[in-house]
Write a structure and sequence with these properties.
Layout lengths: L1 E5 L3 H13 L3 E5 L2 H10 L4 E5 L1 E2 L2 E2 H11 L5 E6 L3 H9 L4 E5 L3 H15 L6 E4 L2 E4 L4 E4 L2 E3 L3 H12 L4 E3 H8 L10 H13 L6 E4 L3 E4 L10
Parallel strand pairs: 1-2, 1-3, 3-6, 6-7
Antiparallel strand pairs: 4-5, 8-9, 9-10, 10-11, 12-14, 13-14
Length: 228
């Protein structure tokens, strides 16, 4: 399972990362809220750890964004000892648990285990590309902050493109998977019309590309900074 850890203190971040990775997790570090939010637009970890006081803002900002865009993603926030305002604010904006700094690594690990036992690993639940986020379980789609209503055919087409992100899908293959598999005949124009409507509802996203004379391809067009 992967954990996103939002922490600007380098020493704490790397020692915590090393300990959690020794215990079977993969940890990506983000020194700012902005970088963490950018990464969350592109992917979904099993859990987020966020220091409540960051150089570019307050952890509550990130937590509220997560509750809008990936509402069931588990969040544990880290706060300094005795700051009851942070604790109240953390739960008010939807965080699941908190750990007080300075913390014993064993305590943090125990809290992570306990939370993931309750929630499970939801990292495969969300698919995203640029500003588009699809929630497989709820079967809903967001583009930025906007919730998008799709027809069943449009939803299936978007899901297929996201599941095959980075691959060119021939038109014949898309028609076979989405329509012909049930024995229903459709003409080639069905795909053209469905994709046109999908693009319109998603505000003509650059990430859905037409590959001339072959088919379609979905790929990121926004540069994502990788953290390790």
């Amino acid at each position: 399972m992967e954990i996103y850890y939002v922490e600007d203190d380098v020493d704490i971040a790397w020692s915590t990362k090393a300990y959690l990775e020794q215990n079977g997790y993969r940890v990506s570090l983000f020194p700012t809220i902005g970088e963490a939010q950018t990464a969350l637009k592109a992917g979904c970890p099993a859990l987020v750890l966020v220091d409540w006081n960051m150089p570019d803002g307050h952890g509550s900002t990130l937590c509220r964004w997560i509750r809008v865009n990936k509402k069931d993603l588990p969040v544990i926030f880290l706060t300094v000892r005795g700051d009851s305002r942070d604790i109240v604010d953390g739960f008010a904006c939807g965080a699941d648990d908190y750990v007080v700094k300075p913390f014993a690594l064993e305590v943090l690990l125990s809290r992570i285990h306990a939370l993931l036992r309750r929630t499970g690993d939801i990292s495969e639940r969300y698919l995203s590309c640029d500003e588009i986020v699809l929630d497989r379980e709820a079967m809903d789609v967001r583009c930025g902050k906007e919730e998008i209503t799709l027809s069943p055919a449009e939803y299936r087409l978007l899901l297929l493109l996201l599941e095959n992100q980075g691959k060119t899908l021939p038109r014949e293959r898309i028609l076979e998977v989405l329509w012909d598999a049930g024995g229903n005949f459709v003409n080639d124009n069905t795909l053209t019309v469905t994709l046109k409507r999908l693009r319109e509802k998603l505000h003509q996203p650059a990430c859905i590309k037409t590959v001339r004379s072959i088919g379609y391809r979905m790929e990121e067009t926004i540069c994502r900074k990788e953290n390790s």
